[in-house]
Each structure stands twice: as structure tokens, then as C-alpha cells.
Amino acid sequence: MRGHIRLRSPGHYAIIIDLIDATTGKRRRKWHSFTGTKRQAQVECARLIAAKQGGTYLEPNKTTLRQFLEKWLEHIKPNVSQGTHQRYSELALKNIVPLLGEVILSKLNPIHISAAYARAVAGGRRNGKGGLAPRTVHHMHRVLRGALAQGVKWNMLVRNPADMLEKKDRPKIERKPVAVIDAADTMVTLEAARNSRLFVPMLLGSVCGIRRGEICALRWRNVNFDTGQLSVTHSIEQIRKACREKETKGSKCRTVAMPSLLIDELKAWRARESTGILAAWHAPRW
Predict the structure, then answer these.
(1) Of 3.90.1150.10, 1.10.443.10, 2.40.280.10, 3.50.50.60, which CATH number belongs to 189-282?
(2) Closest alpha carbon to 218 in 166, 167, 182, 254
(3) Using 50, 70 and 90 to split pLDDT, how confident is the model at 90?
(4) Are 234 and 248 in contact (CB under 8 A)?
(5) Distance from C-alpha of 175 to C-alpha of 138, rounded to nearest angstrom
(6) Whole-structure pTM over 0.70, yes or no?
(7) 8 A C-beta contact, residue 45 and residue 5
(8) For the residues of 77-104, what is the DSSP string, one character each?
């Protein structure tokens, strides 16, 4: 395998690599643009030849990061929930693309990524009023890192440039203490809500640790008064202004033990519901 350089203009070179087409066996050439000194161009030419011989060579590709992320989002769509895909799309297309979208994928490096994160924190809000929170930038990094890992599998990248970014090169997330209420305050709050329709959902969340979406998806068939247990099988997911029911995270059903207080309240609630249904059924129809 051979390669040589050609001067295009002062400081700009073309690196030409001679390749053999694996299908036809014919010789063909691949051109790489390079900016730097003649010596640096020669070193890069040698590196490309060594990469080809070592099986890590990637042919020049004009795919931008924007185009790649759009392709990646289509690829993962059948494999994640609608809510997850929506979140990934927002981070990729509305946060990452404005900063790095026009960079050629094969030329993306850790310096580009680190500088983009710094710009995001300084003034990355879409409305132009301030920067993004470090935690949002952290989520951007997770999405970008996962997408570029797929690019490596697709042989569009030799290595993942996001993997090369050390933790210190990303915005630091300040860990703030989580405000919680104690048992006494919890009881006061529940008593204040006793006469509202939120009382039982609040009780479920407080004594059973069930998530909001899981509470919304509970049905009476999930409650077993004989064993004192309820099964959590589904969750309600909000996507923009619509809601849909889905299986719980990991598609695993779990069983939760109900304390006697919750059992009594659920029985009383069900009795009130039954009374209301019967009253509505026997009401005069005009």
C-alpha cells in the first residue's frame, strides 16, 4: 500500500492513499484534506497507511453529527419507550445539534465536545436567556456518548471521542440535599388531604413507595385484600400533552405489601365508589 502528499496551497495538503477494492481488485485512490506543515502531513499520511494495514482505517465521509444523530434516533426508536425517545430527541436535536451539528462526524474530537459543553453552560438556553444547568449538560453527554458508541459499531468512527473526555472536563454537578418530610409532617399532610380525591393516591405513595405514574395505572384487579398485597404491573407515561399506559420499568411486575391502614382506606374508598355508581344507575333519566 502506498500514499503520498500533494500541496494545494500554503499550509494545505492533500493526502492520497492508494487502495485496492476488495470486490473488483482494482486500484483506487482516497483523498484526505490536511492543514499543517509538510512534515505533519507526511506523518498523517504514514498514520493513515498504518491504520489501513491494521484494520482501523475509515474512508473519508462527509456525514455531519446532525445527520448521524438523526439516523441514530431512528435506529433506537423501536427499542426505547416513547417518553425516552422524546427526551433523547430533545437533548440531541435541540441541545447538541446547535453546538456541534455541523461538525463532520469523523473529525469530531474531545476538544470540540468540551468546548461545546462550556458554551452550553455559558449560554445554551434556546431562548437565549442564560446557560443550561450542569445536570442538563450531563444528560447531553450521556446521549452523545451512547450515540457515538453506536457510530463505532457501525464502523463510522474508529473510537468514541466522548469516552476520551475525562470527568473533570465536564461541568460539575452540585449535589444539593433533598428536602424530605418526617413521619409527623406526613401524617399532618395526609389528614389535610383526607376529604380530597388525592388522599388515597398520596397514601399509596407515602406508605408503599409507588411512583406517580404507577399509582395512576393501578386498577382494582391489582389489589388483593385477602393477601394484603397489590401488584404493580403498569405505569402511565406523559408524552407532551398526551398520556399512555406502558409496562413498568424493565417490564417487571412487583408485589407490594399493604399496611392495615391502607387496606382499610381502600375498602372504604371502594365502598364509596360502589355507592356512587348505584346512585347514578337508579337516578331518574329525563
Answers:
(1) 1.10.443.10
(2) 254
(3) very high
(4) yes
(5) 13
(6) no
(7) yes
(8) GGGS-HHHHHHHHIIIIIIIHHHHTTSB
